[in-house]
Amino acid sequence: VVDLGMPTRTVLTTCAYCGVGCSFKAELRGDELVRMVPYKDGGANEGHSCVKGRFAFGYATHPDRVLNPMIRESIQDQWREVDWGTAISYVAEKMREIQARYGAGAIGGITSSRCTDEEVYVVQKMVRAAFGNNNVDTCARVCHSPTGYGLKQTFGTSAGTQDFKSVAKADVIVVIGANPTDAHPVFASRMKRRLREGAKLIVIDPRRIDLVRSPHVEAQHHLKLAPGTNVAVVNAFAHVVVTENLTDQSFVDERCEEFDEWAEFIARPENSPEATEEITGVPAADLRAAARLYATGGNAAIYYGLGVTEHSQGSTMVMGMANLAMATGNIGRDGVGINPLRGQNNVQGSCDMGSFPHELPGYRHISDDTVRTTFEDLWERHLLAEPGLRIPNMFDAALDGTFRGLFVQGEDIAQSDPNTQHVTAALAAMDLVVVQDLFLNETAKFAHVFLPGTSFLEKDGTFINAERRINRVRPVMPPKSGKHEWEIVCEIAQAMGYPMSYTHPREIMAEIAALTPTFAGVSFEKLDKLGSVQWPCNDKAPEGTPIMHVDGFVRGKGRFVPTPFVPTRERSTRKYPLILTTGRILSQYNVGAQTRRTENVAWHPEDILEIHPHDADVRGIRNGDEVTLTSRVGHTTLHAHISDRMPIGVVYTTFHHPVTGANVVTTENSDWATNCPEYKVTAVQVGLTTPT
Length: 692
Ligand code: SF4
What we know:
30% of the residues lie in helices and 18% in strands. The termini are far apart. The protein contains 22 helices and 30 strands. Iron/sulfur cluster (SF4) is lined by residues 15, 17-18, 20-22, 45, 49-50, 52-53, 184-186. One of its GO terms (cellular component) is membrane. Residues 8-64 form the 4Fe-4S Mo/W bis-MGD-type domain.
């Protein structure tokens, strides 16, 4: 008998890796997942996929999965398996004890951008209604929180403006601080298709990413700016637009406000390309030419990534890009806009679901009495009007002894957050750390309770991708641990005295829709019927909104905000003469907890340090040598890869492996508005680990 391997059933679901949100048919033979087939009618991917979504699903059934809840009194003790009832009672009791001793605000929770909207929503509800405070934050704190802040200030809502399809109408594509080929491969293919058709490309990045020169694609401009100087570059673009009369004045007059004050600021000599050359190292003539191309080349669209947000001026840069788009009228139609390329599958959703200490679902401030009352009425709980602690504030408070209990949903903060030593010291200082995850990750080394999570193959709910598209995630198999993550959270809340229960995630989405105007028209039934919808989805837009700000901005008028360039505190010195910046590669995903447990790891078994031939030569470093990377906060060792992709004076690495732990060297510097860490600028020294 020949086993042809034909599937016996298929389930339509969504990739759990990047923010493109590709749809897949999971094909099963019996209970075994045999392959993932990209879905041709998927709104985000139209039948395409990358090597992660298509092949790297083996982690979901990896033997490292922990399937039973575990408890230990101290982090020096061995774990002991317990039943669910014991684990949930233990968490509730310990959280209550901490509150009784140290106050209601001594505990909090962190939500995960890898979990579903419904799972995230119940965590923030548990914190607000059962814990009785607003100490809830999301891992988006360390990636796209400046996007949320910057776009809200200027446009009125914290989300990208376009759908992915829109790129097909762009005449000029600007890629800033993003590497779509590696980090968002399926969208990168769409972008390249448009570039091959003749659209012009401007890349703003210290590193020569693949897009700069790849088959049939060549950037018209690659502005190799010094790390940390994005704002100076975007201001120089705007300076050219204003001083050379390239503004779309009718758009500005009809649609925007506070233009004159901004124009006066941006026209100042310190924002000229000549002054900017001094700061950024980018020749003034290149800045002028690129700015003119953006302003006059037809539809111009900006796509950006963490190279924009993970800076001390991340929020300023987001507002700077929004200013530029408004000044040139590049908002509100196909082919234009400001488009954050979200890293994780559900960054957009975790932010939309109110996992910020100052915002309820739908980005409404907790201090807004009317909004808060709506939630209080439905949740039947008094809510505090004061914002709670952000993640870095939780760590600081833990070291002060005022924050003692943390629930961490699917996020490895001990590996992903900056200045690892500070994070682990804070975790070690807490009385109770609860980790809900698939694997015993780095954070679990500091945990007292481990609650097994579910992989995307077991989840039932929704993810929201970078274009605000709400996709269904359908279960391929039942939860291996016997419980859904949303059930666990509800049971903890109940054990703490707050009644919270649902029979199915569709009921959670119904509650989200009832409380959140931008989701008012969303339901599982609609998603099953239409495939997906892009929010806002409500009476005004019952089938969703592919492009935002078409007839007016969400805040009414688009607002220009002056964006002065302020240099980062992180400078190269005699002791630390190089600047380290970080990024991703195609085969791996974030801290690697998933992809390292798949065959993808063979393509990238370790993080390596890219270093320019000149910088390597003066240090006697040869290709493959083991080098020590040292900053003022820590050091790690990696193997060197000599490459002229980086300019002289800048080194680069990825952060997929805990052994090398790039975040051991990143610092406490962060965005002034949101505390998003400044991962992209760290002064370092590099030397041979064993000098010859
Ligand atoms: Fe998954 Fe992103 Fe790859 Fe699509 S592009 S298959 S969403 S990792």
